Amino acid sequence: MIVNITTIPGPKGLPISGNLLAFRRDPLRFLREAAKEHGDVAHFRFGPSRHVYLISNPDMIKEILVSKQAHFRKGKGLQVARAVVGDGILTSEGQKHIRQRRLMQPAFHRERIATYGESMVQQAISLMDDWKAGDVRDVHEDMMKVTLAIITETMFGKGLKEGADQIARAIDVGLKYVSTKASSFIDIPLTVPTSSNRQFRESAELLDKTIYNIIEERRREGDQGRTDLLAMLLAARDEDDGKGMTDEQVRDEVMTIFVAGHETTANTMSWIWYLLATNPEAEKKLWAELDAVLGGRLPTVEDIPNLKYVNQIISETLRLYPAAWTINREVAEEVEIGGHTYKPGDTLMMSQYVMHRSEKYYDRPEDFIPERFEGDLLKRIPQYAYFPFGGGPRICIGNNFALMEAALLLATFAQKYRFQLADPGKPVEAEPLVTLRPKGGLMMRLEARSQ
Ligand code: HEM
């Protein structure tokens, strides 16, 4: 039976702006309440005519991301990201996306990324050069720094320090710009000379220049045995027509990997430190594992399967604080899901934050219990009740990279230091911008760990 979509209930809104203000005031709360009250599908409006549906049923989510994915395009927020990442695999659609994804996939195979393990650990060690016991630091800033250094080195290889620093600064401006734009919903065109627009354009030009110089240099010199991602992008050839990527396409993919590949992991690391600091039992268990498996030496990729509790901590952190807190899709072609027909232009939201904290699938959903991932939890619950990396043809291409990086960083830092909240009385709020980050950073005190 096809139900008329206007009959789908949802939170009450205002005549013109609909539910936009309530959503913007506290997006996570708004979504959780909508799902709690209205079940599998909740309908609301952003502005007079933009219809949004929050989908909180795992089978429907699967249809949207997997079996009926061809009826959708990426949501509006990501379309804004094009200003930074151009038409790379995060933002491109249809045949172009399929082609680019096929070209890039080999760079993310398990065996290939395993070669990045050493660089991940070394970057963690060099970050700690600046640390000493007793320091009170913004650990979130540190995590951003180390994940950016890692993505830069694995992308461009060593020896690009100067370019990398410039890129880091410019990306920072770009990301702030996208965050503000995506969450403001007010579209001021880039040509309007506001100060943020001007700053953004300047940093975008600088980024372009830096990246195009690197591409040109690499094309001239050849890869000289390099195995970094850029070498792979330049060497990639399409199976069908044997063609490689244009410089512009390489630029877009490089930017995409920079943007998609560091803030998400940095947030995950920050939430890990926060959750460990507030759950000392879990922290003790982690130390016992690190001491037993590593005994004070640096971790390697081969250790990761033996670091079982480390992996459970990461899974549980991605459950409670999924760096990607929602995936949005816009209907491109009329489509039926769960008995409802959605029209072109409708927005469907699927929120990891909502699903991962649902009592339907998780006991004590608000509590940090890494052990819940010990058994067959992921076999018992529906597939899309836990989807930190999305699913279907657009599943995160960097998921193995991210999990490996998080495990190595956690094992390296936690062997040397314990992170305590600088102000334990002050709750750390989650701020849902493009990614879910600790609001205002994460001030922590470093304590040396005696082994
Ligand atoms: C904990 C860390 C990470 C999380 C939680 C995460 C999450 C996600 C999610 C949910 C998507 C799907 C978005 C959608 O369907 O609309 C995605 C896509 C993507 N991610 Fe990640 N990601 C992480 C780390 C990374 C890393 C390290 C890289 C690169 C090295 C990366 C590169 C990408 C790219 C390129 C896409 C677009 C894929 C496509 O559309 O084909 N991500 N990520």
From TrEMBL:
Keywords: Heme, Iron, Metal-binding, Monooxygenase, Oxidoreductase. It comes from the Bacteria. Belongs to the cytochrome P450 family. Pfam families: p450. SUPFAM superfamilies: Cytochrome P450. It comes from Brevibacillus borstelensis AK1. CDD domains: CYP132-like. This is Cytochrome P450. PANTHER family: BIFUNCTIONAL ALBAFLAVENONE MONOOXYGENASE_TERPENE SYNTHASE, CYTOCHROME P450 FAMILY 4. Heme binds at residue 396.
